[in-house]
Structures are given as structure tokens and as C-alpha cells.
Structures
1.
Amino acid sequence: MPEGLQHISQRGYAAAEKPVRIDLELYSQAVKNRYHRGSNPDGAFPMNVAENHLCWDMLKEKIESVTRNNSIPEWVASYGDPAGVRSFREAVAAFLSEFLVHQEVPADTLACSAGATSVIEMTSFLLADPGDTAVIPAPSYPVYTMDIGTLPGVKRFDLQNHHEVYELKDGFPIHISQLEDARRTIEQQGSRFSMLILTSPDNPTGGIYAESQLEKLATWCEEHKIHMIVNEIYGLSRIDIQHPEIKSDYPSPLSFVSFARLMQKKKSPYLHFWYSLSKDLGISGFRIGLLHSYNTGLIQAYRNAGMPHCISNYTQWVMQEVLADKVFMREYIKAAQKALTDSYVIVIRHLKALQLPYNPSYGSLFVWLDLSEFLSRESEEGQHNLWLEIFEKTGILLTPGAGFGHSKKGLFRMVISCLSHQELEVAMQRLKEFIIKKRNEKPTLPLNNEQI
Ligand SMILES: Cc1ncc(COP(=O)(O)O)c(C=O)c1O
């Protein structure tokens, strides 16, 4: 037991007992022993934290030119609007309008905080009461549990809408009847279904929601006075599904349409949107996230309660200058999407050759793959052991399925944007050797190097 626990509150005790995620210890081990072509060729590949390093050099140069060529404005040193200073919100609104929503996003509908994490926490705190429940289609981002739970006291309900990855081929099979069932179950447990949280493109599956599906879900939520929030944190991290090597994976392709467009049409107090610069711009360390909502009461509450979560004015100033350069941002997004697609294709090429099931992705920084054929036991423990074995034998650290809330065991998330293309090739080669060896240990599915 760590020292001093007996002197803190029950909440503090609970927090001390619960690490934010189970893979952090191995992550720091993998980072210390990171692969390097020249100096550490047998090193590890930490592929479990959702970071995007693909075009950092390009953005870094732009940020450095802003800080080098401009004098810091006076307002930067003072307190500002807790929901984000006006000039920053205007720059972010113009960026979203131009590149993601393709329709005007008013600056007054935005409230900003230190990363999507704090935006999720703040929004849950303001929309739901302690003991309420948020429904989240499974599998989904494990850290939602802490973001909605630790301070807001909201419970997570993982809505099972499929079991096998191939069931996602025409989009998420989420039906109103499942939401009705979830509502009944939640109410029977003495709680209230107060939020529906969707992520599009999704973490971990890379799936997206069709516009018509979003509309149906939004109408149902409004009718039942349930808040629907779509997290578009991966909104610009999109895969080019026309790429010749992957095109056949999308026989009936869906189109990405931002939920913010529907919000603008409906102007409902129950519809909301989350975004952050952590993923699309690969600057998770800058801590910039935002809520977009036409619920003016919610924005006001956010402003009044948001002081502990403010983004530093210096960060707001630097990024408003960067975002204002539309020519640069267009080039950056184009380069980032190309690099991401190239990473994705490297991974998929190997998975196809190895006949490993995965969900064809429309966007995000992930591949969600099914390694269940290698489970010694179909259980959390079997999954955990396989995760450790992959790390031990290949140096590849994936995110295990635990915490994603999904019914099927043996699914893993691979982050594809944290390595260079050269590193990714090496990692996939190691994974290939591991798979071949495992299959050869099992007489049923032999495969050798020549077949691949
Ligand atoms: C779906 C989702 N929401 C929120 C976050 C947290 O983002 P931020 O770094 O902006 O707090 C992540 C990070 O992985 C995520 O995947």
C-alpha cells in the first residue's frame, strides 16, 4: 500500500487504487527500450498509446515560425475567458468550419478546455447527475469510464451491438430497439439513461456513422430527453478508402458527414459535439479540446465552472496563429491523411496476407484486429496472457481489449501513427513471424514464410 493513503479521502483512496489504464507500466518499459534501426534493432514498439507523430516535423516548423516571428500579445499574461479567449475560439471555429464541418460553426457555441479528457469530464458533470448512466456502443475508448466517472459520478453502459468484426461491414448495427432495451435495463437498476456517447471515426474500430443513422439516433434521443454527444476527435484522421490496395474492403462505402451539420439544422439543446487537436494535429501535449453545442445554458454553465480546466493563454495564442493560416492547414491535413493512409496500408497488407480478421477503417489512428484464434482460453485472462506473450516475443505493445467493454475476447487495438513507415514495416515483419510460429504450433492452420 502506498504511504499516506489512510490520511486521504475515500475518493482519493479509490483514485490511488485505480491506474488510469492497465498498460502504462509496460508502456514505459517499451519506451525506454524503443526500437532504433541503427542503435537498438531488437528494441520494442510501443503501439498502445493513441499518438500521431506522422507529420510533427511539418507542424513543429510552423509553430516555431509563429513563436520566432511574433511578439507575445499583452493579453497572454493575464486571466482570460475560462471557456477559451474570443480570438482563439474564432480561430478554432473557422478551422472546424473550413475543414471538418464544411458549414459555419459559430464561435459562441464553443467552450474549450485542456484536452478532450477535460471536455468529456466537464460535459458529463454539467449534463448528468451523479449515478446517471452514459450509454456507449462497445467496443469503445476505455478512458471514457474515468472521464465520466471519477468526478462527474456517471456510470458507463457498454452497448453490445455486434460480436464479430465482420458484423461491422455495413456500419455499426445499432438499432433503436437496443437503446430502448438499454433504457429499460438502466431504469431497472435505479439509474437514468442521460447520455449517449458516440465516437466517429471510432476508437478503436475506425468505423463511422452514416448521416441517416445519426439523424435517427438524434431524433430518438431528443424524444427521450437524452443528451447525444458525438466525439469527432479523429474527424480529420481519415483513411483514403479509394487506395487501390484497400478499396475492395469497402463494397458499400459510407460517407463521413460531421454531426455538427445535423446539430446546426436541429439546434437542439440535447445534441453536442466534442473535438480536440490531440489526434488530427498530433499535439496531445498541448492539451486543447472543445465542446460545441447550441445549448446556450450548457455553454454558460461550462464558462462558469470551467476555470480549473483552462487552456493556457500562451497555447491558445500560438495555436490561433497556426490555425489561421488556412493554406498551411490545408497542406498539413493533406500530408497527414496521406501519411496515415500509407501507414494503414502497410499494416493491412500484412493482415490480409496472414488472413487475420480486422475491421476496415474509415479513420482514427488504429487498426482493430482479431487475434482470438491464438487465445489459450476465451476469457479476460486468456486475452491478457496473449497480450503479454505478443509483447514478450515481438516487442510490440498493443492495447489489450480489456476496458473497451466488448463481448468478444482476443481483439486488440494497434496504433499505426506512432511509428515511422520504416519502423512499422519492421514491426509488422515481427508480428508476421510470431503468427506463423503460433500457427505452426497448431497443426490445423499451417502457414509458412513462402506462402506470404
Ligand atoms: C475517443 C477519445 N476521446 C478523448 C481522448 C483524449 O483526448 P485528449 O488528449 O484531447 O484529452 C482520446 C485519446 O485517446 C480518445 O481516443
Note: The radius of gyration is 22 Å.
2.
Amino acid sequence: MIPHQWYIVLESREIKPGQIVGVTRFGERLVFWRTTEGELVCLRDKCIHRGASLAIGKHHGDEIACPFHGFRYDKTGKVTLIPANGKSSEVASYFHIKRYPVREKLGWVFVWWGESEPTHEPVYFDNVDESFSWSSSRHLWPVHYSRAIENQLDLVHLPFVHTNTIGRGKKTLVNGPVQVVRDGNIAFWVYNEVDHGQKPKKAEDLPPPDFSRQHIHFIFPNMWQNYILDKMRVLVAFVPVDESHTLIYLRVAQKFVRLPLLRKLVDFLALRFSQVVLHQDERVVITQIPIATQLHMEEKLIPGDLPIITYRQMRERLKNV
Ligand code: FES
Ligand SMILES: [Fe+2]
């Protein structure tokens, strides 16, 4: 994992008031709950006493209690009460569990992964806001998240993997790619066409980058958008569960249908279509060896793989910061 980043790890709706939710992220058990004010808290899910999971513990106002011997934890991870020592005993300051900074934005839950405190606030696509309605689903893939991400940066696979959906038309020749790289994000445009024996066009011979046209946009470490139209997007978060599992949060967002019932139907059908596309990807991606990628590895990449090469280079740079 790249340290010192805001990762999307969940959707806000997965942690309802009064619930204590335990999940595995980054290969570690985390526990989430909300204070009485609704503030979201994330701690390492391993009681400092003898290692039990706090996720099966109980709420006590703004605090939670371990199910094993009742140690109480506040939202900073500090133990406020050790029942066996009695209410009148002070709790030493080393009774403290790791707390992870958390933020919520557009229904996503971000966790700051790293030893340091956050250096900035989470960044999301600035052209997505609350005016969209969306429906979403989750899909667990047995791959490292680098493979899942690279699949969504792959414009060579479209006519092979998605023959009857987004890759219809046998457009096997990859022109460009036209790509824009800014700090922490990659955007690119697809100009694939049918091969009549012509040479692929170079990026400079294709239309210049235009963010109002369909393009793919990725923000490190794990956010992806297919900007289909100003009013229609597919949004994905690649959530690292551990070194060999990724939870893909798929969200279809639109704002051109307003009527509630019709909107629900459109959201449902759009999500269904995106799920079909994702399953087409899954069938192949889970067969890739090795399950994680890195900058230097035994793969013979081609010019059409430019966004993947860029991703690997940027990832390597961020890992070494
Ligand atoms: S293991 Fe949690 S209080 Fe003992
Ligand atoms: Fe695909």
C-alpha cells in the first residue's frame, strides 16, 4: 500500500448510528462507530488488553466497550475505564489504541493510512457533487488492488473483454493514448478504431484533451471515474482489503432523470449494465499472475498501455516519498 494517503474504505451508509462495524482493510482489522453527535470514529480493532475484537463490543454513549473484560475506549482510542480496577482507579496513558483519521465526503468514508497525521484533506473528483443520484454495489475480487486499478486504466482490452458491451465494434487499434497527468491523478481519452491496416495515430495527431468529453480519470490512491457525460458517471473505489483481496465499490451516478420512480429505475438499469461490464473484467483479471503489480516486473508492455505505465511510475514515486 502507498502510505500517507486518504483511501476510500467504505460507504457512509454502511455505518449507521448505534452500530459498531468491523472490517478488514490494508490487511488489518478496523472498527468504526459513530458518537452520539454522528461523528465517525475508526480504531484498530484489537483490544490492547488481550486482543479481542471491539467490533463485537457495546456502545456506551460516545464510547465503546470491549466484549471480553469491558475496557472502555473513547473516540481518540484512549481507555477511559478498566472495570476490574474499579471506577475510582486512574487509567495510565499507555492504555491507548491506534486511531485512524476519518473523513466523510459524498457518502464515501476516507481513512488516512500512515503513521503520521494527515497533511491535507481528502481529494475527490471536483465535478461530482450532491446533485447526482446514485446506486451502488460491492464486489470482492481475489487480487491486489493494483491489478483491479490497472484493469480500469486499460484501453487495449476493450474489444476483447467487452465484445458485446462497451467494447463492441472490433476497435482493436489503439490510437494515442491522449493522457493528462497532474499531481496525483491521471486522465485519458479513448480513440480506438477498427484496424484497416493503418498505423496507430500519435497523441499529437488526435484531438487535444477536453474534460467536457468522455474520459477516464483516476485519483491516487484508489478513486476512478468514467466521465460519460456531464450528467452521467461511473465511479469506482478500489478498496484494499489485504494483499490479495480488493473490494470494488461500483457506483453509477446521474442527474438527468429527476422523477423519483423513473430515477430509481434508471439508476438500477445503469448499475446492472456496469455490473455486467465489471464481471467481464473479473473473469480475466483474476487469472493474471502475479496478483500484484510493480514498476519493474516481467511484463512486456506496449504503447497502448501508457496509462498503466504512468500509474506504476506514479505509484512507485509515492511509495518512496
Ligand atoms: S481483551 Fe479487551 S478488555 Fe480484555
Ligand atoms: Fe474492462
Note: The helical segments are 145-152, 158-161, 260-285, 306-319.
3.
Amino acid sequence: MRLFDTHAHIDLPRFGTPAEQRSAGFRARSAGIAAILIPGIEPGTWSALLGAANALRANVPDVCFHTALGVHPQVVGDLPAKIDQDLAQRLSVAIDGVAGLVAIGECGLDFGRDLPPPGPAREAARARQLAVLDAHLEVARRTGLPLLLHCVRAHAALLERLLAAPTPPSILHSFSGSPEVADALCRAGHYISFAGALTIPGARRPRAAAAAVPEARLLVETDSPDQTPFARRPERNEPAFLVDVVAALAEVRGCPVEAIAEVTTANACRVLGVQLP
Ligand SMILES: [Zn+2]
């Protein structure tokens, strides 16, 4: 069995020291994880991310480590406003010639609980997230690279943005929308990735979406170090635990674990334009 974890922040200090990142890489290999995509969060940590990925490649050669660079919507409000003006340019320079970089992100919209209370401040925060997303869209459309999208309580706004112009097939990470939104995204050529929420007993919404997504659009991820699968809590999440997400997806869709592994890995390779050795 070969699995592809399409979203794991194993580069972060809060995941663990470089030695801990390395041992998590070995445990991932033992659990059948063949590839891991490490998403970016903000410009200040991009070079540390690329350095951590290089160290993991050198030390854990049996796992393919891929990277993406972008600005997470949850940190947009903490960054200096001037960053928005030349973000597309900055991103283009940062990704230029980076070996193993396969996507732009993570980026997107988060209109969840961290927004300011209703009023002008909330509207400004939303507008800024949209502007930052637009910079990522611009780079993705110019380079043809897929986007790694985060979306919380903003699916209508995100869909509008994605459908406004041809956009490379992209990944909706840790999908929390309805089956109808999943359907609209898949029709537009995008992929839907499921994480630990699927392992929570009685989690109706992610399970309904996971049952509805066409097989050719399904992906899996851990979102490490967050979203630990239900049976492993309160442990810190790591790529090896992807097997729990795959098992939950197999159960929801009524098919063998091996079939889910095969199809999700093939889908990840297709959307990210990579091949496994
Ligand atoms: Zn993430």
C-alpha cells in the first residue's frame, strides 16, 4: 500500500524538532506513506520550510517530500498590510526554480471564528483575505501550478473566485463544505481532500461529502500536527496516522482500504504533476 499525505505541516517547530520530524518520516514510511506535501504558511517561514524539506529528503530518502509556498488566510491579519501589494511578485520569485515545489499554498479564505465582530473591521478583514487569495490565483494561473486551498465558512466566495477565470485543477484541503459545494468544485476540475474529521464517530457533514465525491477527485491528508484522528487523541498528529483517514474513507464509501489507497495516491500524483519512484 502506498499513500500520499497531501497536507502535513511537519516543518513547523510545533510539530517537533528536526530529529522528531525525521523520526516521524520513518514512521510514515513504515505505515506506507510514500509521499508528503508540506504547505507554506507565511513568507517569514518559507525558507525554513524549504530547508526542513531538504533535510527530510536527505535523511528519509524512502519518502518523497514535496512543498508548496503561500500565505494561510488565518495569518493574513497578522502580517503587515504592505505585503499585499507585491505578494504575487514575491511569491513568483520565491517559487522560481525550487526543486520539489509542486503547488501554490496554502491559501484561501477563513471566515470562521477568528474574524473581528460584525462591522467595518470584519468587512476589511474579509476584503484583505480576498486580495491575498487573488495574488495566489494570479500566480497559479500564470504558472499552471495547482493551489492548495483552505476554506472555512467561505465556500460561496471561494467558488466565485475559482470560477471567475480558468484555474489549474486545485486541492480543497480538509474539506468542510456540503456535498453540493464538493460537486461544484469537482465539476470545475478540482480535487477534494479529507482529513481527521472523517474519523469522528457521527461526523455527518464530512462523511456526506466524502460519500459524494467522484472517485477520480478524492484525496487524503493528515493536516499534521492538527486534526489527530479520533482514536489517537490526544496524541500530536503525524503522517503515519493517515491510515486512519483512509480506513474511515473506505468505510464511508463501502470499498476496500487498498482501493482507496491506490486511487487517492494516483489522484494526488495527477493533480500535483508528480510521479512516485
Ligand atoms: Zn494547513
Note: Residues 7, 9, 39, 106, 223 surround zinc ion (CB under 6 Å).
